[in-house]
From TrEMBL:
Keywords: DNA-binding, Nucleus, Transcription, Transcription regulation. Residues 73-84 have a biased composition (Polar residues). The keyword Phosphoprotein does not apply. Residues 50-88 are annotated as: Disordered. This is WRKY domain-containing protein. Residues 104-169 form the WRKY domain. It is found in: Nucleus. GO terms for cellular component: nucleus. GO terms for biological process: defense response to bacterium; defense response to fungus; jasmonic acid mediated signaling pathway. PANTHER family: WRKY TRANSCRIPTION FACTOR 51-RELATED, WRKY TRANSCRIPTION FACTOR PROTEIN 1-RELATED.
Length: 201
DNA sequence: CGCGTTTGACCTGCGC
DNA sequence: GCGCAGGTCAAACGCG
């Protein structure tokens, strides 16, 4: 299963009743945590949560501006709210950060991009190891962190950092597949509504 | 042989 | 300045 995902700046996932889970039975998007722009504030810490308030509030979703991907200037501000209060507003030169929590039996979702694992670390308050991945495309600096939820190992927290400056290796395949389902059983219209392709800035 | 994974060491930022 | 925690590096290793 190869699908382009939200790290690509051209895609935005919406989770509504029409949402077609691109990972079908394998994944259950229970918490989507997006913060594409500074104007997006959905909860205290900028997360979009679909279920009841989750114990994953320490997973913050922050906004950076990508150094690539055509999103323009490289400096934005980010603010991080934690349980004890707000921290200073920081300035960084990085890309988008997108975190989402999924219920999955497997740790690493195949999002269509090719990832190289470069680190593994045990983190505080989590008995499970955190894995670090880089996009294996030479000029692409997108990173991905994958860890099991410390409170519920059935959930996987995936954090993407940065924006791909190239298309997914499976992008062409995916487009062909979607178009070929024009009158098929699969609800491709819903999918295309769910995955909104936004115009370049 | 090339590529990806593993894993301990090292680096860096932050709080005290 | 020190210690801790998170993030990254790179050599060793395994697999196709």
């Amino acid at each position: 299963m190869n699908m382009p995902q939200n790290p690509n700046p051209n895609f935005t996932f919406y989770s509504d009743e029409n949402f077609v889970n691109p990972f079908m039975d394998t994944y259950d998007f229970t918490n989507l945590m997006f913060d594409f722009d500074e104007g997006v504030n959905t909860t205290n810490n900028g997360l979009i949560e679909e279920e009841t308030s989750s114990p994953t509030s320490m997973v913050s979703s922050e906004t950076f501006t990508g150094e690539s991907g055509g999103s323009g200037n490289a400096i934005t501000t980010l603010s991080r709210n934690e349980s004890t209060g707000s921290k200073e507003v920081e300035t960084k030169e990085m890309g988008h950060r997108v975190a989402f929590r999924t219920r999955s039996k497997i740790d690493v979702m195949d999002d269509g991009y090719k990832w190289r694992k470069y680190g593994k670390k045990s983190v505080k308050n989590n008995t499970n190891k955190r894995n670090y991945y880089k996009c294996s495309s030479e000029s692409c600096m997108v990173k991905k962190r994958v860890e099991r939820d410390g409170d519920d190992a059935a959930y996987v927290i995936t954090t993407y950092e940065g924006v791909h400056n190239h298309e997914s290796p499976s992008h062409v395949y995916y487009n062909d597949m979607v178009l070929s389902y024009d009158h098929g059983n699969w609800n491709q219209h819903s999918l295309r509504q769910s995955i909104q392709i936004s115009p370049p800035p």
